[in-house]
Amino acid sequence: MVSPDNFQLPEQLSTGAAEVDDLYMFVYWFSLIFTAIIVAVMIYCIVKFRRRPGVKAEPVGHNLVMELVWTFGPVVFIAILFHLGFKVYVHNAVAQEGAMEIRARGRQWLWEFQYPNGSTATNELKLPVGKPVKFIISSDDVLHSFYVPGARLKRDAVPGMYTNITFTPTKLGPMQVFCAEYCGTSHSGMLAMIEVMTPEAFQKFLDEGDKPPAGTSPEEYGATLYKKNACNTCHSVDGSKMPGPTWKGLWGKQEQMADGSTVQVDENYVKESILKPQAKIAAGFTTTQMPPFTLKDPQIDAIIAYMKTLK
Amino acid sequence: MGAATTTVPRAQPHHPDPNENYLKAERGIMSWLVTLDHKRIGIMYLISVILAFAVGGAFALGVRLELFSRGRTIMDADQYNRAFTLHGVVMVFLFIIPSIPAALGNFILPIQLGAKDVAFPRLNLMSYYIYVFGACFALYSMVNGAVDTGWTFYTPYSMRTASSVIPMVLGAFIMGFSSILTGVNFLVTVHKLRAPGQTWTKLPLFIWGLYSTSIIQVLATPVLAITLLLLCLERFLGLGIFDPKLGGDPVLFQHFFWFYSHPAVYIMIVPGMAVVNEIIATFTRRAIVGYMFVAMSSLALALLGFLVWGHHLFVSGMSEYATMVFSGLTFLVAIPSGVKVFNWVATLYKGSIRLESPMLYALSFIFLFTIGGLTGLFLGMLAIDVHLHDTYFVVAHFHYVMVGGTVMGFVGGLHYWWPKMTGKLYSEGMAKVAWFLVFIGFNVTFIAQFIMGSRGMPRRYYDYLPEFEIFHKVSTIGSWILGAGFLTMLAMFIISLKSGAKSTRNPWGSAALEWQTPTPPPLANFIKVPTITRGPYDYHLATEEELSEQ
Amino acid sequence: MSQAASHAESSAASHDESHAGGHDEHHGPPWLAHHFDTPAQQFDAAKLGMWAFLAQELLFFSGVFVAYGIFRSWYPEAFSTASHQLDRVMGAANTIVLLFSSWTAAMAVRSSQLGKKQQTTTLLLITIACAFIFLIVKYFEYQHKFHAGLLPGKYFGHPVDGGLFGAIPAGHGHTPHLAPKAHIFFSLYFVMTGIHALHVIVGIGVLFWIVKRNASGEFSKEFFTPVDLVALYWHLVDLIWIYLFPLLYLID
Fold this sequence. Notes:
- The complex is a heterotrimer of chains A (311), B (550) and C (252).
- Chain A is an alpha+beta fold and 311 residues long.
- Chain A has helices spanning 4-8, 17-48, 64-93, 199-208, 218-228, 267-275, 297-309; strands at residues 100-107, 110-114, 120-122, 124-128, 133-139, 144-148, 153-157, 163-167, 173-179, 192-197, 254-256, 262-264.
- In chain A, α2 (17-48) packs antiparallel against α3 (64-93) and α5 (218-228) packs across α7.
- Chain A is elongated.
- Chain B is mainly alpha-helical.
- Chain B has helices spanning 2-6, 29-33, 38-66, 77-113, 121-143, 157-160, 165-192, 205-237, 250-284, 291-304, 320-332, 334-348, 357-380, 382-388, 392-422, 428-454, 469-499, 544-547.
- Chain C has helices spanning 2-17, 39-74, 76-83, 88-113, 117-148, 182-215, 225-250.
- The longest helix of chain C is centred in the first third of the chain and has 36 residues, at 39-74.
- At the A-B interface, α2, α3, β7 and β9 of A face α4, α9, α11, α12 and α13 of B.
- Chain C: Residues 1-31 are annotated as: Disordered.
């Protein structure tokens, strides 16, 4: 433990994080000192007043002043705590002028982001450093919670209503997003990553869109897309049972459908299943929850290439 | 009286001797199953809640073991979700709520009042069987697919999941009525069955605690009942009250749920505090400092408990105004909690302290509850709560209050009153070893959780990022130490039952009323109806004979 | 065995004398439980217990009242139009029936206090009769709703022809002449009146039990606690309806 500051709390990645951390450390040190005093007095008493033959406990007298002091004295302190907590909360809740609005939709079990220009991304968001951003959070099914530890912020995604959080990223690099409200089987797989980049790089990304990193094979790119699009929260690649059919050995298979027909798992079937998941439903998976994904042909090709490797 | 003589009196087939030891007054399994004696009903509750604790504990160890390493360790995600849900449901509804009031309270409360029984003995037995009936529903759910919603049953997930929600919710609903009826019974008993001279200012603080608890049980539990009933109907008929797809409001469910379940936190902790009072007084041979302040702080907690439910919804999309009000009210809880801690510590000063095992648990309670309470300040502060909500910090916080508080109180009380209930002594050496393991194991388990929580580890996660692995490993190892402690304790109590030395009337040399009657108590609790002339902690007024440990 | 028999004898003897002495723990009249010292203490305890129980009943119902308030403020038109589907005449008739039965229950307590056994029985039977009338009216109201498809939740908009217990088709739908979300009103209507009707049915059972005990001469001027308690319960059932009727039937 080099410094308690970076041991107890994650790295500060937003403008508001430092304020929250200062409050946290303030209450932490207060609590530590208070506990130490209580324990010290207890140990002192246990040693000093341990039972000895012939020595009786002193009968308890009345000390109204003392009682009143420790009953109502703490009121002052908790008033201060309440004030500080609320002040920082309000400060962190108010969106700055010109904040970029990002839609964040929670869904079992992925986060779908929508940029102001309408383009969408799953589980991976790019943001410019130093620019305020406001997340408009909603849910398509059950409760989720959009949690960004680096910004010390979270807000529930409640079906039927919109909630929001706002912050300004201060550091280039990744920012972890968790789902913090329990939402079922793959709750712990509902992770998203924010990549904070320079405003120039962000503008370039908006103009050009998502492309495979140079030098990656289609199979590798497909494997990346499998994770990025949260396919892994429902489809295993090792044959284990999950809410969706496993991809292991799926390619080329004669798949039994829920309506009794059989389908050859080929390019057309995979493409249709990604773009229109409800069109054909595999037997045993009647209550499918898979949402349609707006992937482009090169991306679908990469996923197919990856699937072919999963024998 | 003319009418009365024409009736056939509902005479019992035989009358056991009221002065006989309650364990020996009647024999046979039926004499237990249909007993109206509060002491025997208390013992039946005790056995039931210890069984529930074992089941809940097994789920806890399973959850911790799964989290020992990343990815799959012993179970898959669905099994894990069921395991942590069942841990919560069993511990909350089957163990902790009935633990101190229904088990220890049933046994001790009437004796401390100087009464022969609770006000409604048949209702008392009925409460027990309602509890068992509810537990059967929970058991049915467990073997029938179980529940994976978390013990809070949040909608709309509890509408969508294919798991066995309705039997479990009905089980909790039914057990709620057991809790309500116990509360009604105790309220009336405290009001109407005090022995001559047992005035409100002479009541043991254990009674004040249970009295406050009873108020919450009677007034809060029915709200949970209607909420759970609506939840069942919603799932069954699609009422449209909690499900947004049908026009309902999932946040309303959270309001309803926590309107009960936050007061329920005080149903759990106030009895723990109540036990600690008794133990500290006995093992310091001194009255609790600030008696009236401590008594009133229990009532204050009971009433404040109804006003703070909203702090469970700080990030649920509640209005800013509501969050402010609830944050302010939440801080007020610190006042009565502080009053208790300060007065307990002041009682130690100039006392005559003996560190027997019950006292070790009482002192652990003060230490662990202080940590539990202070970490509550972090969560009451809005800005910090937004970061810590639904992380392991919260998990650690409420385990410090529920385990560090209530379970320490329950276990301490069990040690303290064990000779009274069974007439047997236990091995003090073994008890101290068990205490040490429990104390160390508990802190190792949950301090690790505080740190990973403040570092951002969300709760109810089957899998986690590599950076959290070290904390999960430490926490899991702690849970083994904790489990070993409880197993040692169990072995110790079993040995005591089989071959423990016979207890004297008053092995701790306490001035309290329950130790003035024979050990174990006679069927009618007292050979002669006692007249109360001094307070339960007036060691300076008690005679040598009353305090004699022989 | 013989010892047990002699105990029973001695306790019976003590009942006849209505004084302690025959048996060490059995003092006072037969209805005085062993753990109470005086009849007044037992009566007070029973009464306090009943009040505590009624307090929890009120809080039980408070949940649905709060839900009603919230959804009424969310969907005022739906609630307004939906409440017109209820039959105010039937509701008013039931209100009068219940109010009257509450009065007969109170009178039964009074006659029991005066030791008029026969009159108590009559008044209690009238109370029970009123409870049955209430349920019959409720049956016709429910049946009408079922025929009109005004069912709770997902069954809303699917009329049932096979009587009250006929098969209910599942699926979503809505009755065109009602505002959207009207199904929530009927959900609450059925939950609120349903739980209330359940209380009426429980009340009937308890009232019959009290009638039986009264007929066997268990009660007297000195001991009428159970009559008093059941009347208190019945007043609560009445009181809840007094709130349900305007909320569900009358307010626009």
